[in-house]
Structures are given as structure tokens and as C-alpha cells.
Amino acid sequence: MGDRRELGLFPLEMVLLPGERVPLHIFEPRYRQLFADCTLEDRPFVLILASDERAVAVGCAARFDTLVRRFEDGRMNVIVVGVEPVEIVEETSGGAYATATVRTLADDPSEPDPALVEEVRSLFRELSSRVTGTPRDLDQPEGVPLSFAVAGVIDLGPEVKQDLLEQRSEGERLARVRDILTAAGGGMDHTHVAAQRASRNGKVTQP
What we know:
By secondary structure, the protein is an alpha+beta fold. It has helices at residues 29-41, 114-132, 146-151, 158-166, 170-185, and strands spanning 4-12, 21-26, 45-49, 58-70, 76-92, 99-104. 30% of the residues lie in helices and 27% in strands.
């Protein structure tokens, strides 16, 4: 069932995947306090999709990885990195920011088809060559499933990423990622390898 712990919540109009690194601009006092607490206590928080379309119960445990810049008024530019999918069990209260009891969501134990794994890697190399001019292998962080590693470096909408985050089968996720890469290779203009994108999600805002 996964371990249970109480963590701070950071709702945003974006989805973070395990292994994905994104820049954020923190300006609200409650989230500056969340940053301070997580940094001092060396604990993660949960980045969860703020959505009007549906109640989201699955988010991504994350860590503040790098403080890029701290402004005189207390605002901060930071880099956060996704750790693992978690489910919101029960929201709690009493602090400066929203908190909840969460549990880690483990994948099903079945292994994905090796042919599917190689197909996804090959499609990624082809897409990276088309976009950047040079085929490159995926930089897959240790312990991060291939599906999350690929999806984390492609500019996808939050609903697609949320569906991937909620899926517990690596094989099912890889099949979805394969379809996305195939469509991108066919000319979908809005899908790009992250090395070529401008980090629109969680864009760092300069004064």
C-alpha cells in the first residue's frame, strides 16, 4: 500500500513527473515557508495539478533541488525535481500552507515488453535528430522508469502527463509514450524535445 507521511502541497497548473526538473518562481509567503521547511528538514513536498476539470488525487513528490536566485523581497527562482508518484489519502491543516497525508504509489511488478522498450528509445533518438539535428540517447535518471524519463523531456499538456502519472503499468505508459513519439515524428508542431523548448511550464520570471 506504500508508506504514509504528511507532506506539504504545492498546487500548480502543471504536472511534474518523476525525474523531471523544472524551474519555478516562488513568490507567495506560504510557499516560501514551504521551501524553508523542506530545505531545513530535508523532506519532499507534493506538486499537484490544480484543475477545475476534475478532482486530482495523485501528485508527484518532489524536492527543491537548486536555489537559483533569491530576491531582496523574498521571492525565489528555484529548480525542483520529481521523485515519485503519491496519492493524497487525507488533507490535513494547521500550517501556513496546505498539507496532506500521502502514500507512495508503486508500479505493478510486471516488466514491459523489451521490444516496446527498444522501440521507444529508437523513436526518441529519431525525434531528437529531427528537432536538434543530432540523434541522442535519453538521459535516464537512476531509478526513474523509461516512460517518465521520456515524457519528462517532451512538451506535453498537463492532462496527458497526469494520465501517465496515474498509470501504474510501465508497459501501458510506454505504449502511450510510443504513440506520442510516433505522432510527433509525423509532424505534430506542439511536441518538441526539451533541449529545444523554452521551459514554458514553470517558467522562471525575471523582474
